Every structure is written in structure tokens, then in C-alpha cells.
Please model this.
Amino acid sequence: MGFRCGIVGLPNVGKSTLFNALTETAAAQAANYPFCTIEPNVGNVAVPDPRLDKLAAIAGSAKIIETQLGFVDIAGLVRGASKGEGLGNQFLGNIREVDAIVHVLRCFENDDIQHVDNKVDPIADAETVETELMLSDLESLEKRVPNFQKKAAQGDKEAKAAASVLGQALDLLRDGKPARLTQPKDVDEERIFGQAQLLTSKPVLYVCNVNEEHAANGNAFSARVFEKARAEGAEAVVVSAAIEAEIATMPVEDRGEFLAELGLEETGLARVIRAGYKLLHLLTFFTVGPKEARAWTVHAGASAPEAAGVIHSDFEKGFIRAETIAYEDYVALGGEARAREAGKLRAEGKAYVVKDGDVMHFLHS
Model:
């Protein structure tokens, strides 16, 4: 199961630098001019989870395999993107294909790095991008909704549901609000809304790119972004893309000391990845044994058969039951054998809803 976050923003805000640091590669060209990223770069990033190391140590696992989150570096948007300006149609198409938007905002001053508007104003930058996304959605729905309304008047039930939920989204966009505020009333409307692939229906994480001296606590620019995120029910994190790029080139054993010198407990990228995970309403379960300890990703609310299907589709089709141990019990009791002896290993059926941290073993036909 793959989940992808699209990194967006105006040109020269630090998108490609952040992407390079995330993937610990130089796959995305970072240059001080607009449109240096033409084709979207894609990188899968391990989700840091100290629980996995503990499980592996207890089980004596030979290998550790983290779960991953995908990041797509999408070229910078400019005003008029919804009308095709600055390769806009291509960029908007790239955004349409991701599960969530990581919106990088410039929260630093540097006369050596050009800003397309010649000023540092992260809120204005955010509104520029949001406006283009809303205009694109608005144009799409203004073409589709009247057709659904016409078919609904003729008794088409599917069209009636589409006219209702997409009409609500259209009203929001006309009021200058994103489509993600739409509230589908049932499963059918949820399905139709998801299939519409509206750009502004995607959850948003704001990444405040700050100078090195503000990496620990942010600054006045990032404070405004956090206020905006709270008002929208979105997520926000502070990162210094320059610091993260430097850390990415260091040996792993040197990184802790470097972070401590800067007054940081962890990398900004760890916060970005964790926030992206939260944004997508994901959770982690584990499979543990002598060969490997592995983390897997499912949506919150996933059933045991759905979790089994993440490992292999045949496991879901032939699901019999899941042997499940809570992470805390596994660690406290020192592994599967003692958890079984203590009655902490549970046999769960098809209706079981997976919990974050579950250690699971699936039996299937």
C-alpha cells in the first residue's frame, strides 16, 4: 500500500532542497531559478519508529524493515497555473495524483535567493497557490455539476448523489473555501467525492522553511503559518531545509551531536514524516520474527483482513484469524512466547479493527 505526499509551493522556497534531504539523495536538482524541477521526482522515505528497533532486539531479528511514505517533488506553481501559466496544467496534474499536499512556505529572509514576488510573506505565498488550486477545481465543477443536476432531475440516483456532494463543494469554492470542507452524508457521496479528484480536497501540511537560527523554535513568519493551520484544521511543522540537507550528508553516528549543538532533539524531516503520517490518518502494525522485524502501514479503522492484504492479497482472500499482541505487552513480557503464556496473545477475527502498534501474525488458507 503506497501513500504519497506532493511537495508544492512557489519557486525558490526550498522544495527541492527539502526533497533531497528527505530522500538523502541529490535526485532533485536544487537551483536558484524558477522551474528547475520540470518532471516530478519521487522518493520513498522510511518512517522513523523506535518501536521497531525494540521489537527487533527482543526477537533477535536479523533484519529491520521500516514502513515507507512516498514524497513527490513537484515544480513550483505561479499565478495563472490554473490557466496553464508556468507549465501549470502539468503541475496541477501531478498534484492530482498524490494523497496529501506538503506545502513548503518560505519563512526566511535572504537577499541572495530570489523570490518571485520580491518579498517574504508566507501567508500571501500560501494564498497564491491555494487560489490556483481552487480556480482549477472551480472550473472543473462548473462544467460537471450542471450535467449531474440535469440527470438527477430525470431520476438518475447516482447523478443525484453527485449533484448533492459536488454541488456542496462548488458552493464552497465559490465562497473562496477549499473543497475539503465538504461533508459527504453517506458512503456513496464519500465515494463520488473521492473519485472527483479535486485538488483542494486533499489534506495539507504546511512546512515552514526557516533559517538555521530559527530551526528550534521558529520565527514570526512561521508563527503566522501555524495560526493559519490551526484555523483550517491543518498541520504545520518548522524545518530548516539547509540544515536537513547538511545532516543528510553526515554519517549517522555524527547526527545526534550536530542536532544537540543546534538545540534540536530530532531532525525536522522526522517531524515532517510523522506529520504526513498523521495527516493521512495512517497507523503502523508490526510483524516480528527471527528473520525480520517489519513495520506496515494501514489506514486508521482498517480491519484485520485488510491489514493482512497489505502483506499479500492472498492473505486477505484466505484470512482465517490474526494472532495479535499489543506493542506494550510484547515489550513488557519480552516477546511472543511469554505474551502467549500470560494470555496477552489474542486470536482476532475478521471484524477486528487494527490498533497502532499491534504485533500481528496472520493465519490464512
